[in-house]
Design goal:
This protein has about 240 residues and is an alpha/beta fold. The chain is built from twelve helices and five strands.
Length: about 240
């Protein structure tokens, strides 16, 4: 009876990790000789682990990664696409996130840019950073609609607060005037405050032309490129190889 009361109190206090492990540890013969302090210490550790796992689930769910199962451990270095292994190993730590550096993947379609960007997003979420994935055309369309319903500033504010933004299909088509301005606002808010991962077909040397306005292009490129890891991929598509696997 006392055990059931304790279980109910733990749930009422929203200590769900402790509640789940309480009964399991009580019936485990290995814990019969533990003193009170040791037993409570194990329950506290169970609660901590539970909350960390719950937070990770939320982070991965909110990230909405295009490839949610992509991870750096599964990167294919055998395919001839010029993927620099030392740079990817460096990105395997979170120092670049803590230093607010950007990452730019460019190259032809099917070369694995989006997958690599999602693998870095997965890494960041597992390290406790907030992440969100956007296809750039869809993001600009969403911001355009927010202009009409009065939520534009709030939408930009939400983007500024995310620690890692992945912009996929970046500059897949030339930007309209409103899109250029929105892009500058997004990048300006994040400059030296958060990291941005870019994936697109255009190499950085062609960005000025794709952005359009020379003044805005200078401002955007300066903030995005100068502190970024620039990874330009070349070669055949990896998709036939992935299909075989």
């Amino acid at each position: 009876m006392l055990d059931e009361t304790t279980f109910n109190i733990l749930n009422a206090l929203k200590l769900f990790g402790m509640a789940k492990s309480f009964g399991e540890r009580l019936t485990d013969p290995k814990h019969a000789e533990l003193d009170h302090a040791e037993f409570v210490g194990l329950l506290v550790q169970d609660e901590k682990t539970y909350r960390e796992n719950q937070r990770l689930r939320r982070l991965l769910k909110n990230a909405k990664l295009r490839f949610p199962n992509a991870c750096l451990e599964d990167v294919n270095y055998r395919h001839p696409r010029g993927l620099p292994k030392p740079v990817m190993h460096e990105l395997g730590s979170t120092r670049w996130i803590e230093a607010h550096r950007n990452v730019i993947f460019s190259g032809p379609t099917g070369i694995g840019k989006s997958w690599l960007a999602c693998a870095l997003g997965n890494l960041a979420a597992r390290a406790g950073f907030t992440v969100v994935y956007h296809r750039a055309p869809r993001l600009f369309e969403s911001l355009k609609q927010s202009n009409g319903d009065g939520t534009h500033l709030k939408a930009l504010g939400r983007l500024a607060k995310v620690q890692i933004i992945i912009l996929d299909d970046f500059l897949i088509s030339p930007l309209a005037a409103a899109e250029r301005k929105d892009l500058l606002e997004i990048i300006e808010d994040r400059y030296q405050a958060a990291s941005t991962i870019i994936a697109g077909q255009c190499p950085t040397k062609t960005w000025h032309q794709a952005i359009g306005d020379p003044t805005l292009a200078d401002a955007i490129c300066d903030r995005l490129v100068h502190n970024a890891y620039k990874i330009e991929l070349k070669g055949p598509s990896v998709r036939p190889e992935d299909a075989k696997e």
